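Re: the 343-residue chain
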Amino acid sequence: MRPDTPAENVDHAAEAARLERTAGLYPEDAEALLLQAAAHLELSGDRPAATTLYDRLLSSSDGLENPHLVRALKASNLWEYGHEAEARAIIEGVRASAPRDPAPWVIVAEALESHDELEAAHETFTEGTKLLLTDVAEPPYATRPLLFGRHRVRRMLGLSHDEWDGVADTLHSLSVSLDELHDPKRIWSLGSENPAELEAEINRLRTELGAYREALSRPFPVAVLHWPAGELSELVTDYPDLATEYPSYEAHLATIETSLRELASSGTPNLGIVTGTVPSYEAFAASEGSSPSDATLLPQYATTLAARGRAVTWPPQRGAGCWCGSGRAYGECHGTPGAAATA
Protein backbone atom coordinates (compact mmCIF):
# COMPACT_ATOMS: atom_id res chain seq x y z
CA MET A 1 0.00 0.00 0.00
CA ARG A 2 2.99 2.30 -0.16
CA PRO A 3 3.46 4.73 -3.08
CA ASP A 4 5.73 3.40 -5.80
CA THR A 5 7.16 6.77 -6.79
CA PRO A 6 10.65 7.44 -5.32
CA ALA A 7 10.42 9.61 -2.22
CA GLU A 8 12.77 12.27 -3.51
CA ASN A 9 10.45 13.04 -6.47
CA VAL A 10 7.22 13.53 -4.51
CA ASP A 11 5.71 16.26 -2.37
CA HIS A 12 4.01 13.77 -0.07
CA ALA A 13 1.74 16.26 1.69
CA ALA A 14 0.49 17.63 -1.64
CA GLU A 15 -0.01 14.13 -3.03
CA ALA A 16 -2.00 13.12 0.06
CA ALA A 17 -4.26 16.15 -0.37
CA ARG A 18 -4.78 15.32 -4.06
CA LEU A 19 -5.72 11.73 -3.23
CA GLU A 20 -8.19 12.88 -0.57
CA ARG A 21 -9.87 15.17 -3.10
CA THR A 22 -10.02 12.34 -5.62
CA ALA A 23 -11.57 10.03 -3.01
CA GLY A 24 -14.36 12.58 -2.59
CA LEU A 25 -15.05 12.46 -6.33
CA TYR A 26 -14.96 8.68 -6.58
CA PRO A 27 -16.40 7.24 -3.37
CA GLU A 28 -16.40 3.71 -4.79
CA ASP A 29 -12.58 3.88 -4.79
CA ALA A 30 -12.25 5.84 -1.56
CA GLU A 31 -10.75 3.00 0.49
CA ALA A 32 -7.78 2.45 -1.82
CA LEU A 33 -7.28 6.17 -2.43
CA LEU A 34 -7.34 7.10 1.27
CA LEU A 35 -4.94 4.29 2.15
CA GLN A 36 -2.50 5.71 -0.39
CA ALA A 37 -3.08 9.20 1.01
CA ALA A 38 -2.32 7.92 4.51
CA ALA A 39 0.88 6.32 3.22
CA HIS A 40 1.99 9.67 1.76
CA LEU A 41 1.24 11.38 5.07
CA GLU A 42 3.39 8.84 6.89
CA LEU A 43 6.22 9.50 4.44
CA SER A 44 5.82 13.24 4.93
CA GLY A 45 6.26 12.77 8.68
CA ASP A 46 2.68 13.72 9.56
CA ARG A 47 1.78 10.46 11.28
CA PRO A 48 -1.11 11.91 13.35
CA ALA A 49 -2.81 13.00 10.12
CA ALA A 50 -2.31 9.48 8.74
CA THR A 51 -3.98 8.07 11.85
CA THR A 52 -6.90 10.43 11.28
CA LEU A 53 -7.37 8.97 7.81
CA TYR A 54 -7.23 5.41 9.11
CA ASP A 55 -9.85 6.32 11.73
CA ARG A 56 -12.00 7.92 9.04
CA LEU A 57 -11.93 4.69 7.07
CA LEU A 58 -12.67 2.51 10.09
CA SER A 59 -15.67 4.66 11.07
CA SER A 60 -17.15 4.60 7.59
CA SER A 61 -20.79 3.53 7.48
CA ASP A 62 -20.31 1.94 4.05
CA GLY A 63 -18.07 -0.83 5.36
CA LEU A 64 -14.59 -1.67 4.18
CA GLU A 65 -13.28 -4.23 1.73
CA ASN A 66 -10.37 -5.03 4.05
CA PRO A 67 -10.80 -3.59 7.56
CA HIS A 68 -8.02 -5.83 8.93
CA LEU A 69 -5.53 -4.20 6.56
CA VAL A 70 -6.57 -0.72 7.69
CA ARG A 71 -6.21 -1.69 11.35
CA ALA A 72 -2.81 -3.24 10.71
CA LEU A 73 -1.58 -0.10 8.95
CA LYS A 74 -2.95 2.07 11.75
CA ALA A 75 -1.14 -0.01 14.38
CA SER A 76 2.15 0.16 12.51
CA ASN A 77 1.81 3.93 12.13
CA LEU A 78 0.81 4.52 15.76
CA TRP A 79 3.84 2.67 17.11
CA GLU A 80 6.16 4.83 15.02
CA TYR A 81 5.18 7.98 16.89
CA GLY A 82 4.98 6.71 20.42
CA HIS A 83 1.54 5.12 20.81
CA GLU A 84 2.93 1.69 21.60
CA ALA A 85 0.18 0.50 23.95
CA GLU A 86 -2.59 1.28 21.46
CA ALA A 87 -0.59 -0.26 18.64
CA ARG A 88 -0.06 -3.47 20.60
CA ALA A 89 -3.77 -3.71 21.38
CA ILE A 90 -4.68 -3.34 17.71
CA ILE A 91 -2.05 -5.89 16.70
CA GLU A 92 -3.49 -8.42 19.15
CA GLY A 93 -6.94 -7.70 17.73
CA VAL A 94 -5.75 -8.31 14.17
CA ARG A 95 -4.13 -11.58 15.18
CA ALA A 96 -7.25 -12.71 17.06
CA SER A 97 -9.46 -11.94 14.06
CA ALA A 98 -7.37 -14.34 11.92
CA PRO A 99 -7.72 -12.50 8.58
CA ARG A 100 -7.61 -14.58 5.42
CA ASP A 101 -5.56 -11.92 3.62
CA PRO A 102 -1.76 -12.20 4.10
CA ALA A 103 -1.14 -8.42 4.03
CA PRO A 104 -2.40 -7.64 7.58
CA TRP A 105 -0.32 -10.53 8.97
CA VAL A 106 2.81 -9.23 7.25
CA ILE A 107 2.26 -5.63 8.36
CA VAL A 108 1.73 -6.39 12.05
CA ALA A 109 4.56 -8.95 12.10
CA GLU A 110 6.95 -6.46 10.51
CA ALA A 111 5.84 -3.79 13.00
CA LEU A 112 6.82 -6.14 15.82
CA GLU A 113 10.08 -7.03 14.08
CA SER A 114 11.01 -3.39 13.49
CA HIS A 115 10.69 -2.76 17.24
CA ASP A 116 12.89 -5.74 18.13
CA GLU A 117 9.97 -7.93 19.21
CA LEU A 118 11.49 -10.85 17.34
CA GLU A 119 9.77 -13.65 19.22
CA ALA A 120 6.35 -12.03 18.82
CA ALA A 121 7.09 -11.32 15.15
CA HIS A 122 7.99 -14.97 14.64
CA GLU A 123 4.78 -16.10 16.34
CA THR A 124 2.74 -13.74 14.15
CA PHE A 125 4.38 -14.77 10.90
CA THR A 126 3.90 -18.42 11.89
CA GLU A 127 0.22 -17.98 12.81
CA GLY A 128 -0.50 -16.37 9.46
CA THR A 129 1.49 -18.97 7.57
CA LYS A 130 -0.27 -21.91 9.20
CA LEU A 131 -3.70 -20.34 8.77
CA LEU A 132 -3.29 -19.48 5.10
CA LEU A 133 -1.00 -22.23 3.80
CA THR A 134 -1.80 -25.44 5.66
CA ASP A 135 -2.99 -28.05 3.13
CA VAL A 136 -2.44 -25.62 0.25
CA ALA A 137 -0.78 -27.31 -2.72
CA GLU A 138 0.75 -24.14 -4.19
CA PRO A 139 1.21 -21.02 -2.00
CA PRO A 140 -0.42 -18.00 -3.69
CA TYR A 141 1.98 -15.28 -4.77
CA ALA A 142 0.52 -12.85 -2.19
CA THR A 143 1.65 -15.14 0.64
CA ARG A 144 5.34 -14.99 -0.30
CA PRO A 145 6.11 -11.96 1.92
CA LEU A 146 4.67 -13.98 4.81
CA LEU A 147 7.00 -16.91 4.14
CA PHE A 148 10.01 -14.71 3.42
CA GLY A 149 9.42 -12.54 6.51
CA ARG A 150 9.15 -15.62 8.69
CA HIS A 151 12.39 -16.96 7.19
CA ARG A 152 14.14 -13.65 7.93
CA VAL A 153 13.04 -13.51 11.57
CA ARG A 154 13.96 -17.15 12.16
CA ARG A 155 17.45 -16.44 10.84
CA MET A 156 17.71 -13.46 13.20
CA LEU A 157 16.67 -15.71 16.08
CA GLY A 158 19.21 -18.36 15.10
CA LEU A 159 16.56 -21.04 14.52
CA SER A 160 17.23 -23.98 12.23
CA HIS A 161 15.28 -24.52 9.02
CA ASP A 162 11.85 -26.10 9.21
CA GLU A 163 9.33 -27.18 6.57
CA TRP A 164 8.00 -23.68 5.91
CA ASP A 165 11.54 -22.35 5.48
CA GLY A 166 12.01 -25.03 2.84
CA VAL A 167 8.91 -23.77 1.04
CA ALA A 168 10.26 -20.22 1.18
CA ASP A 169 13.57 -21.38 -0.29
CA THR A 170 11.73 -23.13 -3.11
CA LEU A 171 9.67 -20.05 -3.97
CA HIS A 172 12.66 -17.70 -3.87
CA SER A 173 14.03 -17.42 -7.40
CA LEU A 174 16.66 -14.69 -7.19
CA SER A 175 20.38 -15.32 -7.52
CA VAL A 176 21.05 -14.48 -3.85
CA SER A 177 19.69 -17.26 -1.62
CA LEU A 178 17.37 -16.44 1.28
CA ASP A 179 19.92 -17.82 3.73
CA GLU A 180 22.48 -15.37 2.40
CA LEU A 181 20.02 -12.52 2.05
CA HIS A 182 18.78 -13.00 5.62
CA ASP A 183 22.15 -13.79 7.15
CA PRO A 184 22.06 -12.01 10.54
CA LYS A 185 25.71 -11.00 10.17
CA ARG A 186 24.83 -9.26 6.90
CA ILE A 187 21.85 -7.50 8.45
CA TRP A 188 23.86 -6.39 11.48
CA SER A 189 26.74 -5.37 9.21
CA LEU A 190 24.67 -2.45 8.01
CA GLY A 191 26.40 -0.66 10.86
CA SER A 192 29.58 -0.48 8.79
CA GLU A 193 31.01 3.00 8.19
CA ASN A 194 32.56 1.92 4.90
CA PRO A 195 30.36 3.45 2.12
CA ALA A 196 31.31 0.75 -0.39
CA GLU A 197 30.31 -2.04 2.01
CA LEU A 198 27.03 -0.35 2.81
CA GLU A 199 26.18 0.13 -0.84
CA ALA A 200 26.86 -3.53 -1.60
CA GLU A 201 24.71 -4.76 1.27
CA ILE A 202 21.85 -2.40 0.51
CA ASN A 203 21.84 -3.43 -3.15
CA ARG A 204 21.63 -7.09 -2.14
CA LEU A 205 18.73 -6.52 0.23
CA ARG A 206 16.89 -4.40 -2.32
CA THR A 207 16.54 -7.41 -4.59
CA GLU A 208 13.81 -8.62 -2.23
CA LEU A 209 12.81 -5.80 0.06
CA GLY A 210 12.62 -2.90 -2.39
CA ALA A 211 13.58 0.63 -1.40
CA TYR A 212 15.32 0.46 1.95
CA ARG A 213 14.06 2.19 5.06
CA GLU A 214 14.73 5.89 5.44
CA ALA A 215 16.54 5.11 8.67
CA LEU A 216 19.54 3.79 6.78
CA SER A 217 20.24 7.21 5.28
CA ARG A 218 20.07 9.13 8.55
CA PRO A 219 23.23 10.56 10.07
CA PHE A 220 25.21 7.93 11.93
CA PRO A 221 25.30 9.04 15.58
CA VAL A 222 27.66 8.18 18.38
CA ALA A 223 25.19 6.36 20.58
CA VAL A 224 25.17 5.21 24.19
CA LEU A 225 23.18 2.13 25.17
CA HIS A 226 20.24 2.54 27.56
CA TRP A 227 18.39 -0.35 29.21
CA PRO A 228 14.95 0.37 30.70
CA ALA A 229 14.61 -0.85 34.29
CA GLY A 230 12.70 -4.03 33.43
CA GLU A 231 15.04 -4.96 30.60
CA LEU A 232 18.14 -4.33 32.72
CA SER A 233 16.78 -6.48 35.52
CA GLU A 234 16.08 -9.31 33.08
CA LEU A 235 19.50 -8.89 31.47
CA VAL A 236 21.56 -9.20 34.66
CA THR A 237 19.33 -12.01 35.95
CA ASP A 238 19.84 -14.04 32.79
CA TYR A 239 23.51 -13.08 32.38
CA PRO A 240 25.03 -12.47 35.84
CA ASP A 241 28.46 -11.74 34.35
CA LEU A 242 27.08 -8.39 33.19
CA ALA A 243 26.33 -7.31 36.75
CA THR A 244 29.79 -5.76 36.95
CA GLU A 245 28.87 -3.54 34.01
CA TYR A 246 25.52 -2.63 35.57
CA PRO A 247 25.77 -2.62 39.39
CA SER A 248 22.40 -0.87 39.65
CA TYR A 249 19.81 0.83 37.48
CA GLU A 250 20.55 4.23 39.03
CA ALA A 251 24.27 3.82 38.33
CA HIS A 252 23.45 2.82 34.76
CA LEU A 253 21.47 6.03 34.18
CA ALA A 254 24.18 8.17 35.76
CA THR A 255 26.85 6.54 33.58
CA ILE A 256 24.85 7.28 30.42
CA GLU A 257 24.51 10.98 31.22
CA THR A 258 28.16 11.26 32.30
CA SER A 259 29.40 9.56 29.13
CA LEU A 260 27.34 11.79 26.88
CA ARG A 261 28.44 14.97 28.64
CA GLU A 262 32.07 13.94 28.37
CA LEU A 263 31.67 13.22 24.66
CA ALA A 264 29.95 16.56 24.14
CA SER A 265 32.66 18.46 26.01
CA SER A 266 35.32 16.79 23.86
CA GLY A 267 33.60 18.11 20.72
CA THR A 268 32.03 14.86 19.54
CA PRO A 269 29.02 15.76 17.36
CA ASN A 270 25.75 13.94 16.66
CA LEU A 271 25.25 12.17 19.98
CA GLY A 272 22.36 9.84 20.67
CA ILE A 273 20.87 7.18 22.93
CA VAL A 274 19.67 3.76 21.79
CA THR A 275 17.37 1.60 23.88
CA GLY A 276 18.15 -2.09 24.17
CA THR A 277 15.89 -5.08 24.65
CA VAL A 278 17.00 -8.50 25.84
CA PRO A 279 15.57 -10.45 22.84
CA SER A 280 17.21 -8.07 20.38
CA TYR A 281 20.54 -8.28 22.22
CA GLU A 282 20.37 -12.07 22.31
CA ALA A 283 19.70 -12.15 18.58
CA PHE A 284 22.68 -9.85 18.00
CA ALA A 285 24.93 -12.04 20.13
CA ALA A 286 23.79 -15.12 18.19
CA SER A 287 24.57 -13.38 14.91
CA GLU A 288 28.08 -12.72 16.20
CA GLY A 289 28.52 -16.32 17.32
CA SER A 290 29.08 -15.14 20.88
CA SER A 291 27.39 -15.26 24.28
CA PRO A 292 25.27 -12.35 25.55
CA SER A 293 27.44 -12.53 28.69
CA ASP A 294 30.34 -11.06 26.69
CA ALA A 295 30.44 -7.41 27.75
CA THR A 296 32.51 -6.45 24.70
CA LEU A 297 29.38 -6.97 22.59
CA LEU A 298 27.52 -4.12 24.30
CA PRO A 299 29.12 -1.19 22.42
CA GLN A 300 28.87 -3.13 19.14
CA TYR A 301 25.18 -3.69 19.82
CA ALA A 302 24.70 0.03 20.50
CA THR A 303 26.48 0.93 17.27
CA THR A 304 24.33 -1.47 15.28
CA LEU A 305 21.09 -0.13 16.76
CA ALA A 306 22.21 3.38 15.86
CA ALA A 307 22.97 2.30 12.30
CA ARG A 308 19.45 0.92 12.06
CA GLY A 309 18.03 4.36 12.83
CA ARG A 310 17.10 3.63 16.46
CA ALA A 311 19.06 6.47 18.08
CA VAL A 312 17.25 9.33 19.83
CA THR A 313 19.13 12.62 19.73
CA TRP A 314 20.85 13.75 22.91
CA PRO A 315 20.38 16.16 24.58
CA PRO A 316 16.59 16.32 24.20
CA GLN A 317 15.07 19.57 22.98
CA ARG A 318 14.13 22.19 25.53
CA GLY A 319 11.02 21.10 27.43
CA ALA A 320 11.13 17.54 26.07
CA GLY A 321 10.83 14.55 28.35
CA CYS A 322 13.97 13.02 29.82
CA TRP A 323 15.52 10.15 27.88
CA CYS A 324 15.40 7.94 31.00
CA GLY A 325 11.61 7.60 30.81
CA SER A 326 10.91 9.16 34.20
CA GLY A 327 8.11 11.29 32.78
CA ARG A 328 9.82 14.49 33.90
CA ALA A 329 11.27 17.10 31.57
CA TYR A 330 14.95 16.56 30.80
CA GLY A 331 15.83 19.92 32.38
CA GLU A 332 14.21 18.79 35.62
CA CYS A 333 15.70 15.30 35.59
CA HIS A 334 19.04 14.22 34.12
CA GLY A 335 19.54 17.63 32.51
CA THR A 336 19.92 19.41 35.82
CA PRO A 337 23.42 20.46 36.96
CA GLY A 338 25.05 17.63 38.81
CA ALA A 339 22.45 15.09 37.72
CA ALA A 340 25.03 12.85 36.10
CA ALA A 341 26.79 12.39 39.38
CA THR A 342 23.75 12.07 41.62
CA ALA A 343 21.13 10.24 39.46
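Residues 249-265 form the longest helix (17 residues).
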